[in-house]
Structure to design on (169 residues):
């Protein structure tokens, strides 16, 4: 079976791990950080301008893949709603002993409410596990993109990227 963004529209785990926007395992252990899952060389760079810490570099060719300087990234997440491809996520792997916190862009209605238990899915929207909504950011500065923070079982921090629509489990 062919995998990867060219065949499915969704990056494979191999593509994500090879992406210069993916933090190292060591960086995930240190605290919140963004993961830029941009694997196609397309003309795009709003993430670079959005980062107030200079942690994202696209460079002089606008088709370069964004590169994350994981030591400069503090996991503020300002870049998340600026990505037109919805390809940036904030991950706090060690939110608690058994859970991680994942923040992702969410452009569907209805929005969940803080405290809701929601079905969480992978990049295809396929159910993986339930999560608890801990935060909803719906700021005007995000141009209509809502950011949702969900506490999830730690073993899925590299897989869960959305809430399954329609409550599907």
């Amino acid at each position: 079976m062919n995998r990867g963004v060219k065949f499915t529209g969704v990056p494979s785990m191999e593509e994500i791990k090879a992406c210069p926007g993916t933090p190292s395992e060591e960086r995930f252990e240190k605290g919140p950080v963004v993961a830029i899952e941009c694997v196609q060389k397309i003309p795009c760079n709003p993430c670079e301008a959005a980062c107030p810490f200079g942690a994202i570099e696209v460079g002089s060719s606008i088709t370069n893949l964004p590169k994350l300087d994981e030591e400069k990234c503090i996991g503020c997440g300002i870049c998340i709603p600026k990505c037109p491809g919805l390809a940036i996520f904030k991950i706090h792997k060690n939110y608690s002993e058994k859970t991680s916190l994942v923040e992702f862009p969410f452009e569907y209605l209805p929005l969940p409410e803080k405290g809701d238990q929601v079905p969480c899915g992978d990049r295809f929207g396929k159910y993986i596990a339930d999560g608890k909504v801990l935060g909803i950011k719906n700021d005007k500065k995000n141009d209509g993109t809502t950011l949702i923070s969900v506490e999830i079982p730690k073993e899925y921090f590299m897989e869960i990227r959305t809430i399954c629509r329609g409550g599907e489990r």
Notes: The first helix runs from residue 5 to 8.
